[in-house]
Design a protein that fits this description.
single chain, about 140 residues, two-stranded antiparallel ribbon, 3 helices, about 55% helix, disordered N terminus
Length: about 140
C-alpha cells in the first residue's frame, strides 16, 4: 500500500474492496447499492427532531383530554420515527442487500410481536386466574 497525493492506493489498484475504483464515496458499488448524501442525513435528522418535538408538545400542552388518545398518537409518531431512522440512518430499503435486510427486519418484527403478544396473553390470564373473586375476601384468605 502506498500513499500518493493524500489518497491511499492499494496494490491491486483499487481501494479497500472497491474493485479497481478509487474507493471514493461517489463510486457505484454494484447492483442496487444505494448511496446517501449529507442532505439525506440532515433530512433524516430534521424528521427525527420534528417527530420527537410534536409528541413532547402534545404531552406538555395536554392537547388531548384523554391520556389513552395521547398515548395512541405518541405510538403512531414513534412508529413513523422508527421508519425514518431505518430509511435515513440504517439505509434499509427493498433494494439494499438484494432485499435480505428487509426480509430479516420483517422476520425480527414477527418474532417480537409473537413474543410480546404471548407474554401479555400469559400475564393477563395469570392475573385473571390467580386473583380472588373480590378484594373483600382477602382478609379471609389463609
Amino acid at each position: 500500500m502506498s500513499v500518493g497525493g493524500g489518497v491511499v492506493q492499494y496494490p491491486d489498484g483499487g481501494g479497500a474492496g472497491h474493485g479497481g475504483t478509487g474507493g471514493g464515496h461517489g463510486d457505484v458499488h454494484g447492483s442496487g447499492a444505494v448511496h446517501f448524501t449529507l442532505r439525506g442525513y440532515v433530512t433524516g435528522f430534521l424528521g427525527a427532531v420534528i417527530l420527537t418535538a410534536i409528541p413532547f408538545w402534545l404531552v406538555m400542552g395536554r392537547t388531548f383530554g384523554s391520556s389513552g388518545i395521547t398515548a395512541a398518537v405518541i405510538l403512531a409518531f414513534a412508529a413513523v420515527q422508527i421508519v425514518v431512522h431505518m430509511v435515513y440512518f440504517l439505509h434499509m430499503s427493498p433494494k439494499s442487500e438484494g432485499g435480505w435486510n428487509l426480509l430479516a427486519l420483517l422476520f425480527t418484527v414477527m418474532l417480537v410481536v409473537i413474543a410480546l403478544s404471548g407474554s401479555l396473553w400469559v400475564m393477563y390470564h395469570l392475573n385473571h386466574n390467580m386473583m380472588p373473586e373480590s378484594m373483600q375476601n382477602m382478609p379471609n384468605m389463609p
